[in-house]
Records
---
Amino acid sequence: MSDRRTEPRVRTLHLVRDLATLDQALYETVTVTRTPTLDTALRRLSAAADHSKLSFAVAAALALRGGRSRRAAALGVAAVGVASAGANLLGKRLVRRPRPHRSVDSPFPGRHVPMPDSASFPSGHTASAVAFAAAVGPAFPVAAVPLGLLACAVGYSRVHTGVHYPGDVVAGALLGTGSAALVLAAAARLDG
């Protein structure tokens, strides 16, 4: 009887181990792939997304337009707040995954951004960028695709610059999507 209970746990542990192995392999593949044209652009994008600066700049531009775009900006900023709190106050403190190791002899050190002191899981940059895009999109549909592409680029830039594993980015995207859904549901409820 006890074998039946432990079997799902063992399978789960094997699945987690396999996912971690895949995550590491994907990260290593990105770190050894030569992409000189992308390196500078993605390093700059990653830095520009620090503290949600890109999202706040877009929100300011939307707010200045007024009307529906102003509401979209407010929803986006609220979603960034929820996602950022979820990533930094909960996720990183609960999981405490170490950042990727960047060796001194990295083949492309020019693509790196400074290594943050916080834990790696989940990617806060990705969570915030996805939350902003997912909250603004339904309220201001013309911005949905460009903001979605920007959020994807921000997420990839975090792996490309050596500060996150792909799994951190996926988790950040899920957190961002959930944060936007929470904010949109709360706004719909308030609208009655």
Note: The two ends are 52 Å apart (CA to CA).
---
Amino acid sequence: MSIDRSLGDDERVVLQTRPHVKMVFVPFLVLLLAAAGVVAALLLLPDNDSKTWLMLAIGVVALVVIVVWSLVPYLRWRTTSYTFTTRRLITRSGILTKTGRDIPLFRINDFTYERDLLDQMLGCGTIVVSDATEKAGVLLYDVPRVAEVKKQLSELLFKADDGSDDGEFPPTDPRNGRRR
């Protein structure tokens, strides 16, 4: 999750995280069940000539199941990151095709969070960040320690506030010829 190469000279990382580990719980169970299925087939199938072909078919199916429902979700979780710096929110994700979005803090005009019962028990939640652009808000799914992240994001936004409500000007730019 190294993002340091893209930081500005006086920019620093305040918080960097990936989605909560709950995202890989079901893929881990699928991996265990697929492995158990292969072992059970080895032990329970009678020894005869068709066992080789049947085991090959079971192995191929198990491999496809493991790749599609275990490996891909794990890699998706592993390559997703949410980074808050002193200047912006940086999201990155993608296994083969990398996608990302950078939102300057001064453009963020609202954020909310959602937590269902499981999220409350695990201490995670989804943060919805709205900015002063035409684009849809950014959803940060399954953020661990969401209450702490929400607090840090609030503090960052108040530090980056330029005094306007529109997100039009960076904090260091003069506003429409007005004096500070």
Note: The longest strand covers residues 124-131.
---
Amino acid sequence: MDSSNTRRDATRRKLFEAAVTLIAEQGFSSTTVDEIAERAGVAKGTVYYNFASKNVLFEELLRHGIEMLATSLQAAAAEVTGRGGSRIDALDAMIRAGLDFISRYPALTQLYVAELWRTNRAWQSTLMVVRERAITVVEDVLREAVAEGELSEEIDIPLTASALFGMVLVAALDWQSYQPDRSIDDVHAALSRLLQGRVSGRPS
């Protein structure tokens, strides 16, 4: 049973990777199940065995990807606070974790950003759910920062969380697309200065 589950998980990962790359390259409507199967190196029937339809595959793709991102953000924040760091330091660590994730999965990020602005998709509710999953992770740390007196009680936590999340997404995609010669350390340093100076109010 364990061996069967391992093979199924491996197949699903290949399908995820194939689908996200193709959809990011040519759009959802233009991507066929045949192409996904061919890119993944599996039979077409394997796609339908694992996912009832292309729409279901896409929704699961988004859920899987954002869950990985949210988990990495939480782990980064917990590591910092676990060794006595501030919540601002935890937010900075989350920025770095976000950049690391996007550098590893650029196609998934491009796909998420592109689809987030569409309003005529059957999976719009799924997009809202996965967005909320990621934003909530940032909101939790912001609330802790307010409670600890590190941030003003006057900040709008939901909007600030969205702004921070969006900042990382857009800056990372811009970096990957237009400034690929810059190092991840360089990009992180620039965003860190924004966090320290614009959000916490402390000098950079």
Note: The chain has a mean pLDDT of 86.
